[in-house]
Amino acid sequence: MPYTIPNNSCVGCDNCRPQCPTGAIKLENNEYWIDPSLCNNCEGYYPEPQCVVVCPTDSPIPMQAKKGRCKVDSRDATSPDLFANGKSNPFASAIVIWEACNVLAQRTSLPWEIDEYGKACYRRQVNQGRGAIAFHIAKPSNGSKLATELGVVEELDIRAACMHLIFAAYATALDQPWEQSFTIDDRQIEKYLGLEKRKDLSKPAKLALMKNLVQQTCSLITSINWPQQGRIKGFSVQGSRLWHLVDIQHYFQEDDQGCKYLVGLTFKVRAGLWAQYFLNKQGCKERNTFYQYGSLPKSLLTTVMSIWQQHEGAARLMLWLLFKTKMGKEQRITVPTLLRVAYGEEKVTLACRQREDRKRLLRTFENDLEVLNHYGMKPSFDPVTYPSEIQPLWAKLVNLPEDPDDALEFWIKDASGDRRLTDRGPRGKWNMLMNARILSFTVPPEWEQQSTESEKKQRTTKNRTKSKTTAGYLLGEQILQARTNLNLSQRELAKLAGKSQSWIRDLENGRLKAKLEDQVVLRKVLGIA
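Above: the chain sequence. Below: its structure as tokens.
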């Protein structure tokens, strides 16, 4: 239990503050208070709390639960609330945001290493190896120094990914988020994450959790080397904060003994330099930067906060699919990819070698798929590579008749067949799954990008104008139809054409128009006359 200092009996000798190993004792307005999110009773440092040992008046006492309501007289103004429609809100969805979400959600499952400077680093290639993005972690005790041990990755909390997405949503409301800050307080965070329903958590516990998640989110340092892409020139961002924690305001309520209770927090945050290249409205209009955004459903945040302990694999998949499904509904995803995202490469490799680990991982994977299905993310199994005999039992029972008589007839027919639904999986099921794939995930309606009627009319007008001016050009509809007829994925077509998958996607969506030389290549690959 954290300690607190009654200022009525404190003589202000300042003996305790230098002795605190975690820096929990603060001095504000000539009054002492102990940050409950930092105080751990000196566990791991000393056998007993040092503030009690060195205090001449024995002032520090264990903090008791505050009685009565928490009231704050005045607070700094915050940015407007998110989720005005109660369902979703735009959020920055660039590759740097996606990878940062993976870092916070998958943590040690990613291939972290010690780089050439002796720092813990995770890096991956982008744009078919022409560029790269890397992440480091700043030490919590000293925000200017990077962590040198991989153990710091284990301390990351998957719930910080939700805080990261909230920041990404606030950044889209600013014209220049790399220069402008947004302000968010504990009451807003509590509402976004569904913490107001957690009656088992006290106010100090909630505030400590929020502060920890915000600090973890702001501890990520990113470096980006981006190649030239179309008219957008290549750029480099080195050692930049993903999110700058500009300021934290603490709000207190004092009791009769002078004990200060923390009852509120306000965070002031600013996006890093990445936003100048990936969330730049003006630059996107001038076609020299990107402006990439998607739709963040509020239900995703509350769901991850509720299932992260019992179904961490499902929570990881849910966060990953938020970005993956933005690339298009018809995204074929292999089962090995889903397994690596949910559980990491090491567990998948171990399962391939050990039978018991394989059975355990398979059972967990099918349970996590059921959780996704329960929350509206319904997988569509490929009938060729993922036939019914290796599908989970819950998936086979989806079409079970609700009428009792029809259900009875269904089970009678099933019992008389050569193979029954409840039979064990066939021999070699794991090897079959390693070649299986899911055609797509049906996402809930609130996951879809929300568009106003005026925006739809503008798009319709633009499409009509484009159709008049693109006579003789290879249209996106033609490319999509030809690719579908050949049963090619966007990635496969991109390889054949020597382009990126995003380029093919933008062509099919009508965002880009292929040059004449590129049209010749596409016509040849797709067999279009």
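The radius of gyration is 27 Å.
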